[in-house]
Write a structure and sequence with these properties.
3-stranded parallel beta sheet, 6-stranded parallel beta sheet, alpha/beta, 10 helices, TIM Barrel, disordered N terminus
């Protein structure tokens, strides 16, 4: 595992995401809530977090996570919608960027820094445009609203080599269906990061949910026989 002084490549980041198969999306009303959510997620066995830019003082939160956890937790930034935000998140120490939609400027800002950017896409046209930019992973959002696993399976038909991360409506109950449909990893938000539990000082609920999700993903992968294709991204634009 890398030390803080070493530089993670895009391939390193993709591999880390692949290992756990879950990208928790942390949205919260304050830095304190976000901090407790991240602590609970990590205690539950998920060493990956996506701090969204909708969290107040998100950049400070990203810096804090990087300083506190170092390479033990893969810290990314979410809801990154333009190149300026991308630069600020990378300056704060984010190892990967996630967008709700397809922003070519964000992809190119990350590429210039040799960091992973995961664009959001929903339609085949958006997937094609993302592929033209040489992306490694693509977030399908909001997948649940479009039919969930059935939609992901349909989308994979013309793009069998794509590494998709369905997000939106993804939870413990449908995790196995998503992997059976060909998901590379799952983006999980409110169904894991229970703000009501945080606000009632019941962080253990999130810890338990994270542990259950980790086990569900392991079983789903074993059952579906999903093969994780870790694509080397040297020389590719992401």
């Amino acid at each position: 595992m890398e030390t803080r002084g070493e530089r993670m490549t895009v391939a390193d980041t993709v591999r880390r995401i692949a290992e756990i198969g879950i990208v928790p999306v942390v949205r919260a009303g304050s830095v304190n809530e976000a901090r407790r959510a991240v602590d609970a997620i990590c205690t539950g066995g998920i060493p990956v977090v996506e701090i969204t830019m909708t969290v107040p003082n998100a950049l400070a939160m990203i810096r804090e996570m990087v300083q506190q956890y170092g390479s033990k937790v893969l810290t990314g930034a979410g809801t990154v919608v333009n190149a300026k935000q991308a630069e600020m998140c990378l300056d704060a120490g984010a190892e990967f960027l996630v967008s709700p939609g397809l922003s070519v400027p964000v992809l190119r800002a990350a590429a210039a820094r040799r960091k992973l950017a995961i664009p959001g896409a929903l339609t085949p046209s958006e997937v094609m445009e993302a592929l033209d930019e040489g992306v490694t992973l693509i977030k399908i959002f909001p997948c649940g609203n479009m039919g969930g696993p059935k939609y992901l399976k349909s989308l994979r038909a013309p793009f069998p080599e794509c590494a998709f991360i369905p997000t939106g409506g993804v939870n413990l109950a449908n995790a196995a269906e998503y992997f059976a449909a060909g998901a590379f990893a799952l983006g999980v938000g409110a169904d894991l990061v229970d703000l009501a539990a945080l606000r009632s000082n019941d962080s253990q609920k999130i810890v338990d949910a994270a542990r259950a999700l980790v086990e569900a993903v392991k079983k789903a992968r074993a059952t579906s026989g999903t093969e994780l294709k870790l694509k080397e991204s040297e020389g590719r634009r992401v």
